[in-house]
Amino acid sequence: MSGDQLEVRPHPDDPDPNGIIQNFPAALRHRARVAQPMVRKGWLENGPGADDRRGRDEFVPVAWEKALDLLGKELMRVRDGVGPGAIFGGSYGWSSAGRFHHAQSQIHRFLNVACGGYVRSVTSYSSGSSQVLIPHIIGDHEGLTKRNVSWEQIAEHTEIVVAFGGMALKNSMVAGGSVSRHVERSAMKRAAERGCNFVLVSPLLSDLPEEANAEWVSCVPGSDTALMLAIVHTLVVEGKHDRAFLERYTSGWPIFERYLLGITDGQPKDAAWAAPLTGVRADKIIVLARRLAGKRALIVVSHSLQRAEHGEQPVWIGMVLAAALGQIGLPGGGYGYALGAIAYYGRRYNAVPIPTLSQGRNGVSDFIPVARIADMLLEPGETYRFNGETRTYPDIKLVYWAGGNPFHHHQDLNRLRKAFARVDTLVVHELAWTATARHADIVLPCTMTLEREDIGANSNDPLLVPMHPVAPPYGEARDDYEIFADLAEYLGVREAFTQGRSVRQWLEHLYEQTRAGLSEQGVSAPSFGAFWAGEGLLLPQQPDDGGYLRAFRNDPEAHPLPTPSGRLEIYSQTIASFGEADCPGHPTWLGSVYVPTKDTPFVLISNQPKTRLHSQLDFGGHSIAFKHRGREVATMHPEDAAARGICEGNIIKLSNERGACLAGVMLSVGVRRGVIQLATGAWYDPADPNEEKPLCVHGNPNVLTRDIGTSRLAQGCTGQLTTVQVERFEGNLPVIRAFDPPV
Ligand SMILES: Nc1nc2c(c(=O)[nH]1)N[C@H]1C(S)=C(S)[C@@H](COP(=O)(O)OP(=O)(O)OC[C@H]3O[C@@H](n4cnc5c(=O)[nH]c(N)nc54)[C@H](O)[C@@H]3O)O[C@H]1N2
Ligand SMILES: Nc1nc2c(c(=O)[nH]1)N[C@H]1C(S)=C(S)[C@@H](COP(=O)(O)OP(=O)(O)OC[C@H]3O[C@@H](n4cnc5c(=O)[nH]c(N)nc54)[C@H](O)[C@@H]3O)O[C@H]1N2
Ligand SMILES: [Mo]
Known about the structure:
There is one protein chain. By secondary structure, this protein is α/β, with parallel strands linked by helices. The chain folds into three domains: 31-125 and 353-538, Rossmann fold (3-Layer(aba) Sandwich); 129-341 and 570-578, Dimethylsulfoxide Reductase, domain 2; 602-728, Barwin-like endoglucanases (Beta Barrel). Helices cover 30% and strands 15% of the residues. The protein has 26 helices and 27 strands. A six-stranded mixed sheet has the order 2-1-16-15-14-3. The longest helix is centred in the N-terminal third of the chain and has 18 residues, at 64-81. The radius of gyration is 25 Å and the shape is globular. One ligand MGD binds at residues 126, 164-166, 168, 170-171, 173-174, 201-204, 207, 219, 221-222, 224, 302-305, 307, 341-342, 605, 607-610, 613-614, 720-721. It holds the Pfam family Molybdopterin.
């Protein structure tokens, strides 16, 4: 089937379909797909070793047999000669829908079975700081994000929502695994119609939909901690904080209160103090605080706020604000961390487990915080701090990636190129010629989700879907599973990897896990055959009961939080004991690093793209349609543009000490002055890859972002914000080659 024969339709029951699926038709048979196994010329000729030609070398097509032979030998060389601790298999990335062909599960299972394990990565680019912080202060991260305040509760109960970083509908279009119904727009509409007030705190007006009818508090990026401190301060000095709640459910309030009031450092964190830091007038802050008191109030803090330096602080103070309001654990009230960021938040959890492929046992205990990959490759043997420990970076020889795109997700891409130049071998399974594939030594073409059979599911969506292929594999592409099965055979462990099952037999095996769960609940589930022939199976879901925070509120003695004190930790003795200056024992304003300078007068927001999932199918029709002259489009305020002689439709150049990229430009008064927004996901496209810091002609903001952890506590990704210069691009426009296969 060719792409133009393919028609993509949303699920018939979806009230608010997602345009991103329209990337599929043009992508299916696009020239950017990888058609056959390829080996980098320098690696083929000289064998494994550090090589700064990665990313600008030629590729040699080879037959599958040859590719697997080369790779099998190399895996044995590293595994037996150095040990599995020299293999980095973190392989971070979203890959695509489907529970069996989930690339992360496949690669991890393979490396465990065939190589004795690998150095893994922990946490995520999504929530690198909250995943480390929340267990110390609230408890279960999964429970906080996935079994807490739901959209149903908001529609019914909430009186006021303050969304720091917003809840943009573009974000809740997607969910890992799949989502059958998009409910966010209608929930906000119903709530607003009932009289619920929405307050959007963000530099971008588009972070809440029109249906929310929100009041916009435009704030300086990176200043939310100061704003929330000032709101709490106002509540306290006006006696509007819920003392009984703080007393019964939290620990450490008195220590924090002394900081808040300025007793410890001489600076009260009042509205007048916060106004110049946040760009929000003091009287507005005070009014907002008063409006929250005594209401069924929900404080939402988006993932984006913690994807920046000191990203732990807004997450922590968000909880403290919700606690000071006494709202945590009430229906539609309290703390909705990350609500709206992804479509699996704010919903009901399924009552039975969804199919999951077992990854086996990893014989290597070493790991890195996921966003520290370039540090690891550039500084083997160096020590770093993480969650109270001093750890040492391993010496990695072989990096193996399937289902992720570091040239999408990582910061400071020019530094990442240097990091990848250092390894002996970089292996990538890809369906398309991403920049990561272009920097690899061995590129193995894999199928995309339309080309294989699978089961679609997500633990927060009731629909279990049989996924049937709609097209044969592109070129010589194979399923990741098939590639790993053949490699396992080369390494003598095929049976252990495949357990003798075909793909269909695996699907049946995985389905049986869910069916067993259903039987246990007395629900009769169809046979696999009937499921496979059907339209999808609706799974029972858990009640919308507010999860562990509601249970804690109802009876804190019987249901203590899984924190050291069993309570909400406003002051964390554990974190204080780590002694990190960049993450003290209670939420603290640590200053902002995103202060405009003469050379970099703009704060760049590189948020999630509306027209695709990350970098995936950037060459698809929907993504391409929103580019300007083939380039990603940045948005800025018309007055900022006018001051620089920039008009809508121009090509602009964004730059700082780390790099530069081109972009189209759109003007909008919905962007705060001094801020420019350029979404992630345009494929890295260096004008001249021989340069140390080549211009990306296509608009990938990660040539500009800084590669540094959120703090020594969490070491999370800080890709969301940086500072840049913006100017009109004069001169000849370089051609875009991002989607042309390499020579
Ligand atoms: N500046 C900045 N950077 C950011 C962020 C930000 O806010 N600002 N956000 C970060 C966040 S939250 C995230 S989650 C990351 C996302 O980063 P990634 O998850 O790495 O991004 P994707 O583009 O989804 O990469 C998935 C890759 O897998 C490939 N793929 C799809 N299906 C398959 C398959 O079946 N098999 C194989 N082998 N490959 C497949 C796709 O072609 C694609 O190249 O980016 C982070 N980077
Ligand atoms: N369409 C689409 N949706 C996606 C994804 C995608 O690639 N495409 N990726 C998914 C993934 S993996 C994740 S983790 C989530 C990420 O969820 P988020 O990280 O929450 O999403 P972003 O779009 O990066 O950021 C949300 C908004 O935060 C605002 N913001 C940025 N900095 C600040 C600040 O300092 N203060 C305030 N108040 N606001 C700020 C920006 O205006 C931005 O639009 O999105 C998911 N949803
Ligand atoms: Mo993410």
